[in-house]
Amino acid sequence: MSDNEDSACLPSKKPKLTENGLPNDLSGDENDVEEARSTASTSTLDDTNSRSDTPTTIGRKNARGKWKSKKCKLQYKCVNYVKEDHGQPLFGVQFNHNCQEGDPQIFATVGSNRVTIYEIQEKGIKLLQSYCDPDADENFYTCAWTIDDSTGAPLLAVAGSRGIIRLVSPISLQCVKHYVGHGNAVNELKFHPHDQNLLLSVSKDHALRLWNIKTDTCVLVLGGIDGHRDEVLSADFDLDGAKIMSCGMDHSLKMWNLETEKVNDAIKRSYEYSHAKTDRPFVSYHVHYPDFSTRDIHRNYVDCVRWFGQFVLSKSCENCIMCWKPGSISDTLDSIKPSETNVTVLHKFDYTQCDIWYMRFTMDYWQRILALGNQVGKVYVWDLDIEDPSKARCTTLSHPKCLAAIRQTSMTRDGNMLICVCDDATVWRWDRIR
Questions:
Q1: For 176-183, which contacts have Cβ atoms below 8 Å and span 24 or more sequence positions?
Q2: pTM (two decimals)
């Protein structure tokens, strides 16, 4: 699926670095870093920044006072921040969790037509590589890491407003493949937790697609008759990779089952397919009916969803992350029928000043820490290492110079480091205090 167009996605020139390994126009002031703080309370302001037109504003503009929680054992300090020279909003950030123990921590950011890869150093962030899309009108929204299963080399998938998925190789310093199939922007990318060749993409065209990057095939198209009726904004695999939960602008959340005979057959056929052996295109399998669907959790755009064991975490523009599950509390996911309409809400993680859409939360690899940034530059961090979600404690991270909307956060596998990306093109590093 690659051609000469791929070679146009080449590394851009690195900005000049200072002695501490940071670009001159990217370095943060050490005095500013010292002013960062972790607190357990916050106040409210109003802001209207958005990726594009916002839905009806439902934020609590008149809320007063401060909400408080018991002290959280999670404490972080701001170590460093940098600003990318394009000055445009950064929409996505992801650590590479495929690194071996002892390897340096690597993460990527996306925004405008730029993809930037950084390395974590002892007291800073080092710029490694930067890629520019050949189309100046491209605006990348999302990225996801995987590995080449034949060489073990890292690969980075990126996509955005043009709907083209690009596969970038940091080793060969070029875009090695690209996939065209979606009819509009791609809002999120996710790799399968156990098969590094299977890539999930969700789109403004109302559909999800599952790709096999080893054989360059579109395996599944999830959507249609009972699919999403508007832009799909987020999706996630469960820990087993057997189910997908998706959400979007139609206010709905839908669960798709990958453990059916026809889906497994399509995945098997995708591995057996070879462009060199046939002139016929691969026939994708279309899944029109999800195993579960609900509009009872949120009343606005649902812009982020993650599995949390057998539970689901999802958020809208309502200043809370909902922890819930399909059916009753005693139902297993496999027993849920497509006709099921009940949902069980277990807990709400409340926060403030985050009533714009396309603001995405993250969890560490072991699902013990939850983090979300708001539209005025604050980060909420919850301790999930508990049996009862309602007992989760929250810490608020703030810095006097971090005032822009934080679009996404990402953590190292152990949760000891947190990276935030903002609308003002800044990248913030927070280290956990032990």
A1: 176/2, 176/6, 177/1, 177/2, 177/6, 177/213, 177/216, 178/1, 178/2, 178/5, 178/6, 179/1, 179/211, 179/213, 179/216, 179/218, 180/1, 181/209, 181/211, 181/218, 182/207, 182/209
A2: 0.86
